[in-house]
Q: What sequence folds into this?
C-alpha cells in the first residue's frame, strides 16, 4: 500500500526544502516569526490535496468489480498523488 508521510514528516520536509532551496526566504520568515505559518499553510495544502486524492481513488475503485485490482489502482493513484502533492508543497524559488 502507498506510504503517505505523516504531517510531522511533511513539516520536516518543508522546512528542510526551504532551507536548502530558498535559504533567504527561510531566514526572512524565521526573523519575522512567519515561518511556522508558512509551513502550516503548505502542510494544509498537502493534506487537502491528499484528502481529495484519497476520495477520488476510493470512488474510482468502487467501479472496479475486481477487489484485488481495485486495491492496486488505489495504491497506484495514492503513490502518484503523494509525489504530486509533495512536489507542490516543496517547490521554492531558488536562492
A:
Amino acid at each position: 500500500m502507498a506510504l503517505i508521510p505523516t504531517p510531522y514528516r511533511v513539516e520536516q520536509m518543508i522546512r528542510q526544502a526551504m532551507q536548502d532551496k530558498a535559504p533567504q526566504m527561510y531566514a526572512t520568515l524565521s526573523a519575522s516569526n512567519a515561518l511556522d505559518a508558512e509551513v502550516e499553510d503548505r502542510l494544509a495544502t498537502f493534506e487537502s490535496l491528499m484528502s481529495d486524492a484519497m476520495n477520488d481513488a476510493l470512488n474510482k475503485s468502487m467501479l472496479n468489480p475486481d477487489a484485488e485490482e481495485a486495491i492496486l489502482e488505489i495504491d497506484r493513484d495514492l503513490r502518484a498523488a503523494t509525489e504530486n502533492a509533495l512536489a507542490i508543497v516543496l517547490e521554492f524559488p531558488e536562492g
Notes: The longest helix spans residues 35-61. The CA atoms of residues 55 and 61 lie 10 Å apart. The chain has a mean pLDDT of 94. The radius of gyration is 16 Å.
